[in-house]
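User: Second chain of the day. Same drill as before.
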Amino acid sequence: MTMINRTRVWTLVTAVCLLAGCAELPRWLSLAPQSEQELQKSLSAERAANRELDEQLAETRLRLLEQDAQSGDLNKKLDEATLEVVRTKAMLQSLESKAEAASTLAEGEIALKALKAKGARMDDGGLVQAEALLNKSNQELKKENYGGALYLAAQAKSLIKSDQDRLRNQDNVIPLKGEVSLAIPIPLRADGSANVRTGPGLDNPVAFSLKEGDTLVGYSYRGVWVRIKTDDGRSGWIHYSLISGRSKKS
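Assistant: Same format as last time:
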């Protein structure tokens, strides 16, 4: 309905009420109709607010998945089982030599320094844990518990390798403006049939499609779109609402 027609309707209804001897006009009739420009402005503001809320929801959901993925890795490190292994190795006559333990520790420290030099996020829980493991390994080495030192250094190297793999996957990718990298790759699955696009937006062409249950890994996000890679090496962008988290074993 055009602005002129809306004004005519409003005027007609007001006149009817007056002729009928209404003591008081309904509240909604006492309000002058909005202009076309005001209505368009209100609709634009509402759409912008909805987009902002959707992006906030996407970021919150991805951060929760990121934390779940980190927890799955870190809960296996430096818990009671790890400490028990170190204590047990200290009590046994270890066959591992001092040289082997020292070598593994040195390799871990060098790898960690290399990651720092490449700009790895040092607030990443995995790297924080790796650094703590290397420090404990060095302490056990000084106590001449070579088996325990070797075990801790090997655990640290495993965590560092995970971050090296993440950076390697991103080496040939030029980040887009506003793209945010995840602390670690997140194991994901498709919730149903879904299109993966060449860029973060519906205006980008479809690169390929997924079936429900297909597994993939998320590396970063921009707004409500997630950069992913499938198990067979295909990559692209998918809307966050079409995916969910999965365990690394699934």
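Residues 28-32 have pLDDT under 50 and may be disordered.

User: Great, on to the next one.
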